Amino acid sequence: MAKIKLDNIRHSYFPNPQNEDDFALKRVHFDWVDGGAYALLGPSGCGKTTLLNIISGLLEPSHGKLVFDDLDVTALSPSERNIAQVFQFPVIYDTMSVYDNLAFPLRNRGVAEPLIDKKVREISAMLEIDDLLQKKAAGLSPDNKQKISLGRGLVREDVNVIMFDEPLTVIDPHLKWKLRSKLKELHQKVKTTMIYVTHDQTEALTFADQVVVMNFGQVLQVGTPDDLFNRPEHTFVGHFIGSPGMNVLPAAVEQGSIVVAGEKVEVASEILDIGTAKLEIGVRPEYVRISESGICAKVINVMDVGRHKVVETLVEGVKVCVVAEEAMPELPEEIFLSFDPQQTRLYADGWLVDVAYGDKE
Amino acid sequence: MKTENPRAWFLVLPVILLVAFNALIPLMTVVNYSVQETFGNNVFFWQGVDWFEQVLHSERFHAALGRQFMFTGIILAIEIPLGVAIALAMPRKGIWVPVCLILMSLPLLIPWNVVGAMWNIFTLPDIGLMGYGLNSIGIDYNMTQSVTAAWVTLIIMDVWHWTSLVVLLAYAGLVSIPDAYYQAAEIDGASKWSVFRFIQLPKMKQVLMLAVLLRFMDSFMIYTEPFVLTGGGPGNSTTLLSIDLVKVALGQFDLGPAAAMSLIYFAITLLVSWVFYTLMTKDQKD
């Protein structure tokens, strides 16, 4: 187990990157606390798999250092780093029995057979696959295969980190929940640092204590599920997390206050001098109210999603969703919206204004 | 409710006719010859299973069959491991992939009698590059006199001509292995040998089975190349089954024994292929 430090990691798949866009990872500088359960969340192509491969050692970063505890491991091979990885598709050794699959990483490292036997039985009990030990691994169901891949990581006592690369992709929906809670339970037991890569916000938010949201090759926010929902530090985070995502509207500063669609809006952020940056406000649909006066919006659709209704409106061509808990009368074509000032935040060039804006560039 | 319509059989008729003309009728003609004797003029006498007994007891047949098994055994023992080794050494990505694939396919595109003729000329002691070269460095090499030279040449020729097929099949098996397997093996600390033994070999198993089966059938029925290369000589030393069969059927015009021999030949090929197939697919069922 170890603390993992990503020290100014940058990576480009081009041999001579010319500009920022050539970098798959722009700059990642960040610590993973020992024993934490992390999720790495982001859309396809955001750089999360690149980051994962850099941590596991399958890829060497173009710039920066990777440090486990106090040891610089940037140049070490995956087996030397002592990490484990569970892949998107279950990787098992077809010709071996389940037992031999679990014993394989230990045998490769020359561990004595009695100790191997003890470890394999311990892990199989933990994963509840004891009864499969003597079976051939090839014929198992995908979820059991995934458990074996996981078991091969857990069987080694001192792994620094276990990484999961979208491990539930091939698992049936009704088993996903089971396996996910199993993972959570295992984490409590073994206390190994775990990094769970996914593009599914539900998976990320249920597994992790800390979620790392990535896009455009950089880390946008690290926080608890609650932070991500209530205080998104980037408009993308607000948009990506939540269903429907946060509403983002263009804004302007006029005489010291924020104006959206011609109306003055109160925001929770401090209004600083933000120069020429592009200004936007963000407010979650849960904090938008239909009221007597305020911003004028055109109703385009009302969706009943069961628990509540989602009203889709257009404000000067920008879509704004409203979550309406109460039963609604027939809506007129044009309505007025007001935003909860405590939950309306100001963003400049995408970044939340009162978090160290200026550090980011 | 009756849904069967006897007229549906008409739809199958073309296939039945086709199979009849290209398989059943020729086969039955052979069966017909194998149980009769003729002295020409299209007059036939019933002979029963005499020809079969004669062929099965003939030393000449035993010798040819023995040579056939030896040839097939040797080329399989060389071509399969060699093909796998070359496939493993081939690049998996990059611009060299198509180059390697085309180079590998070239021998397969050469007509069989051309292969025989090429190697025949190549090995001539007086003008052939290989024959002349070997003799000039002091190795007595002459295919028309030495049984060893003839066999070595025959085997090298077949390895040269057909290893590519094994390479291409094995390569197809190799490239279908997802990267994650190699990455997982690296993380598990597996050695190169373990990667081969537990990942590459099991994943290539299907195509290798196919390769063994194809190479068995082809080599067991080989005719053109050895016929052009050595004509079965020196003596009868490279007279494989098919060459012997042609000698009996067309050289001596013994239609009865030749027909009986063909059927036995066919039965052996079928039997060995079936045994191979059953053995190789056995553990897939559990």
Question: Any overview of this molecule?
Answer:
The complex is a heterodimer of chains A (361) and B (286). Chain A has nine helices and 22 strands. With 361 residues, chain A is of the alpha+beta class. Chain A has two domains: 4-235, Rossmann fold (3-Layer(aba) Sandwich), CATH 3.40.50.300; 236-352, Beta Barrel (OB fold (Dihydrolipoamide Acetyltransferase, E2P)), CATH 2.40.50. Chain A has a six-stranded mixed sheet, sandwiched between helices. In chain A, strands 16-20-17-18-19 form a five-stranded antiparallel sheet, with no helix packed on it. In chain A, strand 9 (210-215) and strand 10 form a beta hairpin. The two termini of chain A are 34 Å apart. The model of chain A is unreliable at 356-361 (pLDDT under 50). Chain B has one domain (6-284): MetI-like fold. Chain B is 73% helix and 2% strand. Chain B has helices at 9-34, 50-57, 59-89, 96-109, 112-122, 129-136, 147-175, 179-187, 192-220, 224-229, 241-251, 255-281, and strands spanning 36-38, 44-46. The two termini of chain B are 40 Å apart.
